[in-house]
Amino acid sequence: MTKKETALDERLWEKIARALDSLEYGSIHIVVHDSQVVQIERTEKYRLPAEKAKDEVKQARTGR
Prior knowledge:
Blueprint: H1 3-20, E1 26-33, E2 36-44, H2 50-62
Antiparallel strand pairs: 1-2
Protein name: DUF2292 domain-containing protein
Pfam family, one: DUF2292
Organism: Brevibacillus gelatini
């Protein structure tokens, strides 16, 4: 492995680590073409507490 390839691998791992940083719910997709990583996608989801959502629905239905 050449020095250039090693540096590229280190930068790639740093980018993957940054994509994972502070991700609570979601996914990381790494797209590879011809044995080369060409894209890193991060999809983040926000989870809301179920109890609060139930209370809001109940309030909407009863008007209270």
